[in-house]
Amino acid sequence: MKGQKYAAAKAAEIRLVKRLPEYWRVTVDHPPINIFVPEMLPQVGEIITAIGTDEQVKVVVFDSAVEGFFLIHLDFLANLDDFAHLSPGPTGLHPWPEMLARLSRAPVVSIALIRGRATGMGSELALACDMRFASREKAILSQFEVGTGLVPGGGPMARLSRLMGRGRALEVILSADDIPGDLAERYGYVNRSLPDVDLDGFVDTLATRIAFFDKQTIMDVKRLVDVASLPPDIEVQSGWDACVASMARPATQQRIKALIEQGFSKPGDAEDRLGDFVGRHDTKSGD
Amino acid sequence: MKGQKYAAAKAAEIRLVKRLPEYWRVTVDHPPINIFVPEMLPQVGEIITAIGTDEQVKVVVFDSAVEGFFLIHLDFLANLDDFAHLSPGPTGLHPWPEMLARLSRAPVVSIALIRGRATGMGSELALACDMRFASREKAILSQFEVGTGLVPGGGPMARLSRLMGRGRALEVILSADDIPGDLAERYGYVNRSLPDVDLDGFVDTLATRIAFFDKQTIMDVKRLVDVASLPPDIEVQSGWDACVASMARPATQQRIKALIEQGFSKPGDAEDRLGDFVGRHDTKSGD
Amino acid sequence: MKGQKYAAAKAAEIRLVKRLPEYWRVTVDHPPINIFVPEMLPQVGEIITAIGTDEQVKVVVFDSAVEGFFLIHLDFLANLDDFAHLSPGPTGLHPWPEMLARLSRAPVVSIALIRGRATGMGSELALACDMRFASREKAILSQFEVGTGLVPGGGPMARLSRLMGRGRALEVILSADDIPGDLAERYGYVNRSLPDVDLDGFVDTLATRIAFFDKQTIMDVKRLVDVASLPPDIEVQSGWDACVASMARPATQQRIKALIEQGFSKPGDAEDRLGDFVGRHDTKSGD
Q1: CA of A11, closest CA in chain C: separation in Å?
Q2: In angstroms, rounded to a whole number, what is the distance separating the alpha carbons of residues B32 and A70?
Q3: A169 CB near a chain C CB, below 8 Å?
Q4: Which of A126, A255, C89, C133 could form a disulfide with A149, with the two C-beta atoms 3.0–4.6 Å apart?
Q5: C79 exposed, middle or buried (CB, 10 Å; 0-12, 13-18, 19+)?
């Protein structure tokens, strides 16, 4: 770890702050790179349960306390196998896509405020939110997984194809490359990219505005928009199954191993320029 | 009413002019703010029936004769209850969403030329048209309803989610805020926003062009595009039902009452800056 | 033919070059205007069969060797009737839409590199590809057919409505007009338009990148994106049937005859400015 650039590592924390009873903030605070570690999963699950059941909350904003990173992928130095095979919930979905489905269906408006890198699970969380606003200068979204041989597991095939159409969804997922804020807006990956200096104010104003609207009305609008726009669970489950199958393939294991040797899942160049790294031919196996 | 700024009120009129047998113009002329009054409903219904049954017409342009307003919402000083409970037509839909569905399905190309405010029913009429072109400087679109506690009734949940994807549709409807021309284009709310000086010429050229094409061919293309893009009636009906239910809620009645006290549904600041007004916390009930 | 401007006519050729076993290029080379002649059909069919069955190929780029033209419409001086009534393949689709459906479903990433005019079948081929990148200065896309009285037959009603929403799809098809690169990007007709000088490098870099990714992973991603974004064959077939029916109408035959008299299907002004020509009222029959 480069001492100057990154804050000290500390326990992963997903922090919930109630700015108003109607307006919550959820902040990912796991320096130095906001990597997703398995112990975050129950924290996220509890928060999404609270969002879905609290009677007062109407709007929740997801953001990051870590410079340069919104939320990134699973820590590949953790036990991936354990994570991949967690018991499904009552819907039959693995806990991760199941939490995302619950967030999308919650009777609460969810907004991702994206500054820094949102890749893998970070991109998937943002896509499960109702709206996404990105820093023009500092946001980078991506689904890097195909570059490692993995099929993404948290629903981007289902969600991106509905947001931006087939051509752009295939490009985002199959290029596995970094998508900066303005391109993300042109593609519909985010609602808008805003000058970094304006982003916090814009999102806070929008969230506060919605916090004073009527909860039943918000619920009804979401329910009706979702008829035509939310993917069915079975489609997300099929993507998860393809993800788990891809993880077991030797070619994928080799690619991941080569990437880890170059610094993947650790602070440094590989994560700062992940799009470049997964596109380097020397990280590929001999296929 | 501010005498200088607004023309004198007069009887509501939806004016039909046949520029050619194949090319009609429908102009909303209800100064000073083109508010939708219940007596307009049969006028609109008759025109849409004519559009759907005339053998020669191929293209119809909807515009406004009133400076600053394309067409806005229902007059909330009228009897809303009567309007909400009009008898449904043969499709089971309330007359308003039913007219919009007929317009979309008519074997005729419908184009909204949007200059000034298009909110509520004005936005819904534009969304039911086949194409929308907006003045870059003077068009403002919105679905303001959620700011009053209402669920919009004329289909924007169904139509906007298909035009711009889930994230932007939820933002437009749940923010209840003004969307100027250029943002409307970036979001896909309109086909394009054009410099105001070019708008009339552009739309007239396009309409004239289409007026000389083959009617059967136009019908077939519309029918085939609609397979994947037009919402089913049942989805629009479900939105209408949610609208009527929301109207009856005491919280909505209180919000509407507070807004009317500030000038809602009358010429003046509240309608000129409706997005701001519905977002003011002092118009909210104590929920 | 204007000798200076156009290269000499030669036999139609669709050229397949394997840059790598994993990365193929397919180049349309039928000067002077890359018009689609019926003898190209089996050539395209064979190449798409090879793309769908080769075990190594992962990405294929379609481009043109002819200045000013990517690929345009069927040669209307050929026997249209014969072409329209070719025997359907095992899916029940006419060979042309059937090839396009196979291309979209192939376990290979297809990319259209569009420089020059892509209209009619050229636009349809581009739309059947997984991604489209266009020259900002030199690409022009269109579905000109409605200007001749024809319903387009290769699926644009089904594909454009899913890519860009109902309003813009109806405009593109019913205006029958030229869509330059930047507008094509704003509408989602292409993934991006790029400065002409950057286009080849961008596409080559992207294709090379994907060529080193895992084929099974690519296949799985495509399959999952397609669930929500690829039109069913029956919808494309319905469009084809409408196309064949429109071809038989006397009004269409008259429009085509008038256009041919003005130079349609031959090198020259009519093809260089096809959008203008199909919009001229003097090419219309007396309807």
Answers
A1: 34
A2: 49
A3: yes
A4: A255
A5: exposed
DSSP C79: -
Is residue A143 very low, low, confident or very high in pLDDT (cuts 50, 70, 90)? Answer: very high
User: In the predicted model, what is the mean pLDDT of residues B230-237?
Assistant: 95
Q: Which of B18, B194, B187, B234 is nearest to B108 (CA)?
A: B18
**In A, which residues are within 8 Å of C188 by CB distance?**
164-165, 167-168
Predicted confidence at residue B5, as pLDDT, reads 53
- The residue among B151, B183, B187 with the most chain A CBs within 10 A of its CB, best to mutate, is B151
The pLDDT assigned to A282 comes to: 60
C80 belongs to a structural domain: yes
Q: Which residues are registered as beta bridge partners of B65?
A: none
CB-CB contact of B70 with B28 (8 Å): yes
**Are A255 and C227 within 8 A, CB to CB?**
no
Peptide bond into A156 cis (omega under 30): no
Of B161, B171, B238, the CB nearest to A229: B161
pLDDT, position A154: 97
Q: Is residue B209 part of a domain?
A: no
Helix (H, G, I), strand (E, B) or coil at B111: strand
Q: Look at B221 and C164 and tell me if their CB atoms are within 8 Å.
A: no
CA nearest to A158 within chain C: C225
Please judge whether B163 and C165 are an interchain contact, meaning their C-beta atoms are less than 8 angstroms apart. Answer: yes
Average pLDDT, chain C: 94
Residue C2 pLDDT grade (very low, low, confident, very high; cuts 50, 70, 90) = very low
Selecting from B109, B218, B228 the residue whose C-beta is nearest the C-beta of C161 gives: B228
- Are A210 and B174 within 8 A, CB to CB? yes
**Residue-range definition of the domain harbouring residue B126:** 4-197+223-283
What is the average per-residue pLDDT within B98-124?
Answer: 98
From chain C, pick out residues whose CB is under 8 angstroms from the CB of B207: none
Question: The tokens of C161 are what?
Answer: 């409505």
DSSP state of B279: T
B190 touches chain C (CB under 8 A): yes
The CATH number of whichever domain residue A112 belongs to comes to 3.90.226.10
Residue C141 lies inside a defined structural domain of this protein: yes
Whole-structure pTM value: 0.95
Specify the pLDDT at position A8: 52
If pLDDT is split at 50, 70 and 90, which confidence band does B2 have?
very low
Of C162, C164, C249, the CB nearest to B216: C249
The residues, ordered by sequence, that sit 6+ positions from C257 with a Cβ below 8 Å of its Cβ are none
At B38, give phi and psi (nearest 5°). -55, -30
Number of domains in chain A: 1
Residue of B nearest to A215 (CA): B149
Chains that touch B (3 or more CB pairs under 8 A): A, C
Q: Do C217 and A162 touch (CB under 8 A)?
A: no
Chain Cα centroid distance, residue C15: 16
Tell me, yes or no, if C231 comes closer than 8 A to chain B by beta carbon. yes
- List subunits contacting chain A, requiring 3 or more Cβ pairs under 8 Å: B, C
Predicted ipTM beyond 0.90: yes
- Contact by Cβ (8 Å): A271, A175: no
Which residues contact residue B174 at a Cβ distance below 8 angstroms, ignoring those fewer than 6 apart?
Answer: A109, A130, A210, A213, A218, A221, A222, B146
Contact with chain B for residue C238, Cβ under 8 A: yes
Question: Does the residue C145 lie in any domain?
Answer: yes
